[in-house]
């Protein structure tokens, strides 16, 4: 278990370690956890973190404190909007998908719906370039995508993106409330 510090530094900040990472260190960390999951799980449980496994990724969770539930719901609403924006940009936006921020900016010229969704992503007023830059930064900070090619600015969506997709997919809306939810 020689990678405990590296794993902790990524996961304790809310990040993910993905199987399809373009970063060689992250690939080694993923393999180390996969090979010694039980040992890492016990170790991190001893310091108050629950090591969780998703579909090609690892992350930390904790037992819920009631005060945290409201904050998490607000975060979830934010990620629903991000996911909606990204799927509007390209319906195949998922792990393994490659994109360039410049491609998103080009789409603004021909897609009014994408523009409208972009404008509602952040509270502060920004131009489209700043919106895309901030969104990509949030995606990379949490390891949902990684810079694959610095020359042309290509990013690759990691397996950790399944986390957001599965969270949104798990939402169930009762039939009696469907008419009350704005489209």
Explain what you see.
With 183 residues, the chain is an alpha+beta fold. The protein has two domains: 4-61; 66-171, Arc Repressor Mutant, subunit A, CATH 1.10.10. It is 50% helix and 12% strand. The protein has eight helices and six strands. The protein has helices at 4-11, 24-35, 37-45, 66-89, 101-107, 112-119, 128-141, 161-169; strands spanning 17-18, 50-53, 57-61, 98-99, 145-149, 154-157. The strands form two sheets. Strands 1-3-2 form a three-stranded antiparallel β-sheet. A hairpin with a 4-residue loop joins strand 5 (145-149) and strand 6 (154-157). The N and C termini lie far apart (49 Å). The model has no long low-confidence stretch (mean pLDDT 88).
Summarize the structure in short.
With 183 residues, this protein is of the alpha+beta class. The protein contains eight helices and six strands.
Counted by DSSP, the helix tally is: 8
- Biggest sheet overview: 3 strands, antiparallel
Q: Which class of secondary structure composition applies to the elements?
A: alpha+beta
Portion of residues in beta strands equals: 5-15%
**Secondary-structure arrangement, i.e. CATH architecture of the largest domain:** Orthogonal Bundle
| CATH fold call of the largest domain | Arc Repressor Mutant, subunit A
Name the helix and strand elements from N-terminus to C-terminus, one letter apiece: HEHHEEHEHHHEEH
Uncertain stretches of 5 or more adjacent residues: none
Q: What is the number of strand segments?
A: 6
């Amino acid at each position: 278990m020689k990678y405990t510090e590296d794993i902790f530094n990524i996961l304790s900040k809310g990040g993910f370690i993905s199987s399809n990472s373009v970063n060689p260190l992250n690939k080694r960390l993923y393999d180390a956890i996969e090979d010694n999951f039980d040992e890492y799980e016990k170790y991190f449980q001893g310091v108050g973190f629950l090591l969780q496994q998703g579909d090609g990724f690892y992350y930390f969770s904790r037992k819920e404190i009631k005060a945290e539930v409201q904050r998490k719901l607000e975060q979830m609403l934010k990620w629903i909007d991000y996911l909606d924006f990204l799927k509007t940009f390209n319906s195949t936006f998922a792990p393994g998908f490659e994109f360039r921020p410049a491609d998103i900016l080009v789409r603004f010229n021909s897609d009014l719906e994408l523009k409208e969704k972009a404008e509602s992503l952040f509270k502060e007023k920004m131009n489209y370039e700043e919106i895309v830059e901030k969104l990509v930064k949030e995606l990379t900070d949490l390891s949902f995508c990684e810079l694959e090619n610095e020359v042309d600015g290509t990013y690759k969506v990691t397996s950790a993106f399944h986390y957001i997709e599965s969270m949104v997919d798990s939402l169930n809306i009762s039939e009696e409330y469907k008419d009350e939810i704005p489209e």
